[in-house]
Amino acid sequence: MAVEPVVYGASERPPRGDYSRARDDYTCPQNWSAYTEADHDTYRRLYERQSALLPGLAAQAFVDALPALGVRDRIPRFDEINERLRPATGWEIVAVPGLIPERPFFDLLAHRRFPVTDWIRTPQEFDYIVEPDVFHDLFGHVPLLFNPVFADYVQRYGQGGLKAHDLGAGELLSRLYWYTIEFGLIREPQGLRAYGAGILSSSGELRHSVTSPRARRIALDLVRCMRTRYKIDDYQATYFVIDSFEQLFDMTAPDFTPIYDTVRALGELPADASIASDSPITLG
Ligand code: PHE
Ligand code: FE
């Protein structure tokens, strides 16, 4: 076997997925012919349910780019998506057997290669799955890779990740990934919208994050965000809000070395913390 499987976060379960298929960089061929009719049907039903939920809740750039995924009645071939993605932003998607370790993950992103899990959840897991599968990765993450500014942010994140890894700050930076790329909200002219993949691929959290008066929403602040622990098995207690992808890109341009020192000095916060310096975002 070329690579070791990764054990993710607090999870004690062995990771799902066959890592014996992986190359040294953790990528593998998309085993398209191995999908069953039931697999394609699961994808079709997930796509149908989720796309119907988007109006008024999903970021406009996401809604605009979603059709670029192509077929919706079966699991797409990654090669076909790449024929559209490469000319759009220079990104490509690559298949992986499941979650991969921090360093190779950052390395792929730094080279504009987005890892997409190739297996799909079982029908029993239709509503909820902790680990990313092909539906989460494709539907949630890939549309915004067609947006030039967001695409540049994800590459910059990968480059910053390699540096953070060497500084021992990978875990701190992973919180920024979590609260932006996975669970980010954005203020648009029409109101608050979701752009994070974890929200956009979830049937329940999409409405909750954008509309629930019980959700805590604060303006994104790098130090506050990287201090904040997160939930991997429940709706987020706190969402961080941006005003534009340009703002996110510009905010992450500076050298993070002193920012990590500040984050460490201040210490971590529970997922549901409220602190005096927070700028709460109120619903329209
Ligand atoms: N600019 C940051 C640094 O120098 C890295 C970074 C980029 C972090 C983008 C997050 C997102 O460390
Ligand atoms: Fe994800």
Walk me through what this model shows:
The protein has 284 residues and is α/β, with parallel strands linked by helices. It has one domain (19-266): Phenylalanine Hydroxylase (Orthogonal Bundle). Helices cover 42% and strands 10% of the residues. The protein contains twelve helices and six strands. The protein has a four-stranded mixed β-sheet with strand order 4-3-6-5. Strands 1-2 form a two-stranded parallel sheet. Strand 3 and strand 4 (191-194) form a beta hairpin. Helix 6 packs parallel to helix 11. This is Phenylalanine-4-hydroxylase. Its cofactor is Fe(2+). GO terms for molecular function: iron ion binding; phenylalanine 4-monooxygenase activity. Belongs to the biopterin-dependent aromatic amino acid hydroxylase family.
Quick structural summary:
This protein is of the alpha/beta class. It is 42% helix and 10% strand.
